[in-house]
């Protein structure tokens, strides 16, 4: 009999958790699974995707018994480790339309605008205190090579009547961010930042209040498929008619999904709180900020005055297998600190009090995919958010809920459903070796271009093989 064995996470030490999780003293509030349970729907993973899916199922079919099994505590994965940036999918309109066509891509992007409004309502009504601040998302260039990286997406959005972005020049960027490093860009005004861990635990508490059963610290060891699936943990089992795999990068344990999924690391640091210093340089609001280098740089000022500063590390996981080094880098965010000081020289004397890492589930198209496992129509999954999920996972939850409930609607019929049309990746070890070469080249290219130098021909050639958006 086929058994799907899941990868066991390397649970982060308390000191290695993200600033966000440590900031609120996040911990499990539900008991580990013990004994045998029955459910109509089992969801594996208690992050944004799993929790939004549980909530959408209960909205559509309130009597459905939904059980969530989370390996650590809800939000301990990517949902509680990210940079807290909230923006719509219009920045990826070009990439999404390549997968689903322009009209559905426009609608999906509009759906993420609705997701941001939903988050705003949850905060306004006192349902979830997530520190949501919709002060804008700045997409900028800090070198000649980065200029115009947004042109295609912005032009396509305007062509379908969605003028989501406004141009920004150096004076306004410096006035808003307190930095002269970036000098041209665009801003999406209805976007901003959030406290990721507050959102994650808020979704957990909301799901519990709406009748979802959640067992934290209950890593799933394996799943036996069948008309009734059986998921096994160390101390119990759940039998369920339907299963949703919402385990982010940990889905790389399944060979069928690993053909389309690769795992890379991202590193984030958080400084001490220095509100007076940030005020003095003009950085006062809750905008999220990115520059356009391939090793994406993203940062924000928190309300109390910390700087949270993240960057793609370039680390690649062999066979999608990753361990404790993806919780916290042995270099403790050294490259991030260097970039922080480039962008904000005035912060050189400010202590970096937190550093952490996290795995990102990536697919070549940089657009998530939803489907069921081949030959097992009652085991569903969603993956490939590529590090952009706060306004996007509410949409993923709608798609997965419709698939699980066998509804015939626009969500189950979405062009995001169906992995057979997606690009597959080379087998190992060629994938890993190729990825190391490409990401090494991307790193060298970034290092040259950030100082307005040109990389050598071989470096440019290899860097051009990186999946995802091509500039201009």
Structural notes for this entry:
This protein is an alpha+beta fold and 472 residues long. The protein contains 13 helices and 19 strands. The protein has helices at 19-23, 48-60, 93-100, 102-124, 151-159, 170-177, 196-209, 255-258, 275-280, 334-343, 393-404, 430-449, 457-463, and strands at residues 4-5, 35-44, 66-69, 85-86, 137-141, 165-169, 184-188, 192-193, 213-215, 222-224, 229-232, 236-245, 262-271, 288-291, 297-301, 307-316, 352-362, 369-373, 376-383. Strands 1, 2, 3, 9, 10, 11, 12, 18 and 19 form a 9-stranded mixed β-sheet that branches. α2 runs parallel beside α7.
Topology:
Elements: E1 4-5, H1 19-23, E2 35-44, H2 48-60, E3 66-69, E4 85-86, H3 93-100, H4 102-124, E5 137-141, H5 151-159, E6 165-169, H6 170-177, E7 184-188, E8 192-193, H7 196-209, E9 213-215, E10 222-224, E11 229-232, E12 236-245, H8 255-258, E13 262-271, H9 275-280, E14 288-291, E15 297-301, E16 307-316, H10 334-343, E17 352-362, E18 369-373, E19 376-383, H11 393-404, H12 430-449, H13 457-463
Parallel strand pairs: 2-3, 2-12, 3-9, 5-14, 12-19
Antiparallel strand pairs: 1-10, 4-8, 5-7, 6-7, 10-11, 11-12, 13-16, 13-17, 14-15, 15-16, 18-19
């Amino acid at each position: 009999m086929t058994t799907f064995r899941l990868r066991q996470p390397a649970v982060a030490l308390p000191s290695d958790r993200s600033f966000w999780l440590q900031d609120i003293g996040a911990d499990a509030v539900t008991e580990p699974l013990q004994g045998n349970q029955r459910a109509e729907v089992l969801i594996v993973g208690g992050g944004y995707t799993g929790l939004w899916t549980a909530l959408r199922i209960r909205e559509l079919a309130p009597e459905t018994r939904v059980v969530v099994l989370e390996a650590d505590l809800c939000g301990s994965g990517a949902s509680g480790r990210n940079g807290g940036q909230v923006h719509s999918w219009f920045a990826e309109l070009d990439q999404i339309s390549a997968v689903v066509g322009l009209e559905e891509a426009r609608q999906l992007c509009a759906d993420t605008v609705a997701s941001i409004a939903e988050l705003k309502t949850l905060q306004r009504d006192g349902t979830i205190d997530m520190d949501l601040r919709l002060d804008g998302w700045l997409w900028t260039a800090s070198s000649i090579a980065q200029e115009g990286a947004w042109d295609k997406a912005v032009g396509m959005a305007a062509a379908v009547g969605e003028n989501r972005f406004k141009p920004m020049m150096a004076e306004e960027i410096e006035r808003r961010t307190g930095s002269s490093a970036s000098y041209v860009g665009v801003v999406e005004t209805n976007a901003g930042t959030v406290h990721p861990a507050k959102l994650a635990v808020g979704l957990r508490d909301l799901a519990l209040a709406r009748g979802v059963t959640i067992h934290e610290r209950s890593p799933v060891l394996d799943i036996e498929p069948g008309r009734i699936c059986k998921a096994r943990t160390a101390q119990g089992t759940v039998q369920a008619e339907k299963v949703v795999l919402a385990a982010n990068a940990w889905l790389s344990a399944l060979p069928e999904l690993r053909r389309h999924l690769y795992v890379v690391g991202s590193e984030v640091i958080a400084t001490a709180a220095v509100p007076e210093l940030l005020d003095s340089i003009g950085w006062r609001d809750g905008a999220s900020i990115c520059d356009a280098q391939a090793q994406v740089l993203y940062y924000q000022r928190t309300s109390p005055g910390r700087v949270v500063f993240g960057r793609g590390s370039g680390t690649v996981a062999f066979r999608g297998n990753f361990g404790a080094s993806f919780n916290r880098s042995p270099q403790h965010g050294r490259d991030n600190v260097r970039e922080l000081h480039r962008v904000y020289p005035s912060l050189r004397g400010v202590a970096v009090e937190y550093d952490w890492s996290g795995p990102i589930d990536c697919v070549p198209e940089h657009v998530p995919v939803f489907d069921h496992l081949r030959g097992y129509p009652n085991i569903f999954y969603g993956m490939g958010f590529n590090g952009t999920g706060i306004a996007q996972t509410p949409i993923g939850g709608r798609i997965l809920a419709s698939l699980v409930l066998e509804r015939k609607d626009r969500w189950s019929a979405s062009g995001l459903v169906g992995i057979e049309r997606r690009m597959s990746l080379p087998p190992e070890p060629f994938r890993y070796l190729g990825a190391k070469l490409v990401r090494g080249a991307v790193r060298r290219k970034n290092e040259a271009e950030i100082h307005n130098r040109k990389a050598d021909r071989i470096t440019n050639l290899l860097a051009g093989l990186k999946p995802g958006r091509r500039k201009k």
